[in-house]
Amino acid sequence: MKIAPTESSSDAVREEVRRRYGATASGESTCADDCCTSTEATDLGYSAEDAAAAPEAANLGLGCGNPLAIASLKDGQVVLDLGSGAGFDCFLAAHAVGKRGRVIGVDMTHEMLSKARQNAQENGFPNVEFRLGEIEALPVADNSVDVIISICVINLSPEKQRVFNEAFRVLKPGGRLAIADMVATALLPDEIKANWAAYTGCMAGASQIAELECMLRASGFNDIKIAPKDSSRSFIREWLPGKRIEDYLVSATIEAVKP
């Protein structure tokens, strides 16, 4: 029997996450039909115009919100996407920052990187690059990024404090976090916390808002804003049918500034 996520090492958790999303990028499935977290982009807050602006192959339906809605991106900025997947948000960000700007996607899954790089090459995005790396140890220089975006990825990390420390390191002074992620609104049942499909499906690893605020402050961030989106429960309930997962989780936007 597989050891539960709560009893596994950080490396074991990352490997299980890598396995699931590698299979997703390859068009395979690593879980039963009752643990799929694919969601329509319009349900996550993207417009039809957003969906049309990115390569179709970049939209895998993985996410829990739209970080670009709070990112306020400007021409010429450098944007970093944590857990960039097939590149959907990177390509939308590339339009926003223009030719003078730059977008860096970081992902630990080789299959996702291959798909993202192919999407960039085939669709003409010279200001977007994708790097192999873990979000707990970013392959990005200190003080080099204006805005960090991420969608439904930090909850997957077994070492979230390290993620926020790294985010703080690479942001320029005045740089911003603008992410969408899952937060826990109640203590998760043990059966959910022990469920690997629930963990890799962006549910069992979610932290409570107070915990996230403490981690962000410990990393050095100011102006922390975490806004739960109760409307997200309508699609979250479909992620783990019959388990009432929406009673314990909600999507939220998370913003913070490096002084």
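(ticket continues) Second input and output from the same batch:
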Amino acid sequence: MAPTAYLINTSRGPIVDEDALLRALQEKKIAGAAIDVYSVEPLPADHPIRKLDNVLLTPHLGYVTAEKLAIMYQDAVEDIIAFLDKKPIRLLKSTKSH
């Protein structure tokens, strides 16, 4: 990568060699990185990458949006009401043969 490059990983932590990335960032071999996935999640509090000023770290929250949370909570409420009414919905089908 060029010294002006930024690595962005929002996919899978283990696809990036974190030790090599840490060295590249410390030695300014790349301009920076933005990461929300890590080989160990949550990222340990004492991880050295947290001390770098050329890194943007965020928690792995790619699926979290206000719209998605609203749907999840609404579905949960509907599930509870249906269960209490003894008319459960969104049942999972078992793959076991009886």
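Agent notes: The longest strand covers residues 6-9. The helical segments are 18-26, 66-84. Closing as not reproducible unless the customer responds.
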